[in-house]
Specification:
2 copies of one chain form a homodimer. By secondary structure, chain A is an alpha/beta fold. Chain A contains 13 helices and 12 strands. The first copy, chain A, has 3 domains: 44 residues, 434 Repressor (Amino-terminal Domain), CATH 1.10.260; 132 residues, Response regulator (Rossmann fold, 3-Layer(aba) Sandwich); 133 residues, Response regulator (Rossmann fold). The structure holds a DNA duplex. Chains A, B: InterPro entries: HTH_LacI (IPR000843), LacI/GalR-like_sensor (IPR046335), Lambda_DNA-bd_dom_sf (IPR010982), Peripla_BP_I (IPR028082).
Chain lengths: 336, 336
DNA sequence: CTGTTAGCGCCTTCAC
DNA sequence: GTGAAGGCGCTAACAG
């Protein structure tokens, strides 16, 4: 059996209260008491039962991070940043995978929120639309990462997807491309990511007086490498094939690079490729991949700060917080 | 405030005990009671407080998965398999990042093990050697993933690294390569992975009567993409440069592909490359990457089964469980 | 500054 | 089958 506060108190010949004081660095403890208790603590190798503490305090010092898929590099990189930052703040992060399935997402969210395991939730949602989210009564604070899915009454941290996409496409235009295609996502109402990126893409084309014909946008079921091939083939099959691809994720861009290679096209001489997310992998592809790089570090800190403020009881009205991004021009769009 | 068992009992006009019975699907409950309680449950939207339940029962239904780095694709893919399998078993997985730093690894391990948060721990360790592990008194069961770090008294699930490495190198030999270099890891006593893979590599070379000279092994600080470039340059600088690279991880292999490209060498015509881990990315590189593919699915199930058995009280002596692997020959070692 | 008391929400003996 | 009490380990009141 585990050693309890009471055991320590008994050994030291003091009350549990005093032991608790020492364990929690309470201010007014006499040196003599300190010494006695510490000796007993060490001798018994006492570790507090965090469950009991959490039950008593109503707070656990743990937050949940709900991600669609941990194997998606963007999410694992984001998770890394969040775990890092949280550990500096003395917070434990419980990472959980939702599979992007709305029902599982909801289920996990409900559990996380109602079971008192966690003080708060960081939710990166793809599939879950605003309506479903609105139906969730939140006993614990929730901060959304990524796109704001509809007008949910939640804090939300992300980048300006429209502007970032416009920048990416403008970069392609500046380098002399004219038939620029977009790849990724469903453009469904619930897929806010693709809607916003498509909007930025079209805005850039329109501003430059370039065609925005429908055939230049190829949807994909998800945003993974394996989803790109079909889309690329469809685009290349057109009588006037594109001379540049703007992919809504780096993984899609990498899948596209592979398919272009199989089709015998050279990047960037025949066709340019730009991605989105700046995952580490993109620096090592051949050619290396131009990408929009959201400031993941800042997303992590901002999200955590916001969540901690809510947990502490902040009652401001929900805010949409935007963090920075960069366009990183690499070989896939620059070296001729 | 959250709604408690007592609230439900009051509304239904029964005792907390009866509510508990219904919530936990206890056998002997009258249909009338069932109905009354369920109605109250629904009306109040009751969710049990898992903290209190865990405290009471001494079990939480949660296990910890401790990984060096979540951004390493191999680990995130493994994590995915484990979360998947665990969710089928009704177990929640708490993923935590140790940064591979032995002290942080130990710290997290201690916390996980002593604080009653989790019923068990799956530990994938790189840095932590057997001696340090032996010093940890485990209040909860621990199962090791990957290499067995020394003769620790813990269960352990992994593949036969020596044999897998020998197979990989044999494959290179079979395809006509003669100067085969190895890349990765420190070969330090604590880095069991590189020791075992190096052993298999050398065994294959010796068996074929090929040179195993020291200059053909290039160490790397870690196993990431960015660690490969220096190693590759060193190998190529030698008067008799290798005609094949056996990399101890896919990430290293991918970093190597990039560096070989920069050096103007073509894969596989000038030089073959083989990796280890079979991460998804490796199917999309150009050329696609030949790799050893450990059965991650089976690692996940075996590890979970073993851990659950321990949690249930199994008292068998610690076992080393080996699961299967495959050599997947792709373009980087086959297409001329 | 320290000891006593009570209770966080739940489950599980023990009676009925 | 169901009700009443007790306690898992801890900390927050309230004395003293």
């Amino acid at each position: 059996m585990a050693v309890t506060l009471r055991d320590v108190a008994a050994l030291a010949g003091v009350s549990p209260r005093s032991v608790s004081n020492v364990v929690n660095d309470f201010r007014y403890v006499s040196p003599a008491m300190q010494a006695k208790v510490r000796a007993a603590l060490d001798e018994l190798d006492y570790k507090p039962n965090l469950l009991a503490r959490g039950l008593r305090q109503g707070r656990t010092g743990t937050i949940a991070l709900l991600l669609p898929e941990i194997t998606v590099a963007y999410f694992s990189e984001l998770a890394h940043e969040i775990v890092e930052r949280a550990s500096q703040l003395g917070i434990t992060v419980m990472i959980d995978e939702t599979s992007g399935a709305p029902n599982r997402e909801l289920a996990l969210l409900e559990v996380a929120m109602r079971s008192s395991w966690v003080d708060g939730v960081l939710l990166s949602t793809l599939g879950l639309n605003g309506a479903a989210l609105a139906g969730v009564k939140s006993d614990v604070p929730v901060v959304l990462l990524g796109e704001r899915t509809a007008k949910s009454a939640l804090d939300h941290v992300g980048i300006d997807n429209v502007r970032a996409s416009r920048d990416a496409v403008q970069h392609l235009i500046d380098s002399g491309r004219h038939r620029i295609a977009a790849i990724g996502g469903s453009h469904a109402p619930s897929d806010m990511t693709s809607r916003l990126r498509l909007k930025g893409y079209r805005a850039a084309l329109r501003a430059a007086g370039l065609p925005t014909e429908d055939y230049l946008y190829a949807r994909t079921p998800k945003y993974r490498r394996g989803d790109a091939a079909v889309a690329v083939r469809a685009l290349l099959a057109h009588p006037e094939p594109p001379d540049a691809l703007f992919c809504f994720s780096d993984e899609l861009a990498i899948g596209s690079l592979r398919e272009l290679y199989e089709q015998g096209l050279r990047v960037p001489s025949d066709i340019s490729v730009v991605g989105f997310d700046d995952i580490e992998e993109s620096r090592f592809t051949t050619p290396s991949l131009t990408s929009i790089s959201p400031d993941k570090h800042q997303i992590a800190s901002t999200a955590l700060e916001t969540l901690m403020a809510r947990i502490a009881g902040s009652d401001l009205r929900p805010r949409a917080l935007q963090v920075g991004y960069q366009l990183l021009a690499r070989e896939s769009s620059t070296r001729q």
